[in-house]
Amino acid sequence: MNYERFSDLTVGEIMRKWPSTIGVFIDLRLHCIGCPIAIFHTLSDAAIEHGIGLEELADEVSAAIDADTRAGPVRLRRRSSSGDAIP
Length: 87
Hints:
Layout: H1 11-17, H2 22-27, H3 43-50, H4 54-70, E1 78-79, E2 85-86
Antiparallel strand pairs: 1-2
């Protein structure tokens, strides 16, 4: 189980730190995105509340984090006043 890696983080913190995990919550039909409780619930809390196995949830979240990390750092692109991206 990969839970220890982020056991002290809330669901909200996980989604902010690793935006790629948002897709996991959507795919598993967990409505954590935009939920006011996400800033308080850990993954364990969310698993209990939604009746999903903690191991499954933690493995999916961890896989999304690993895939995102391998993709490299996010580079923000500046935009011109017309909205076009500037390299």
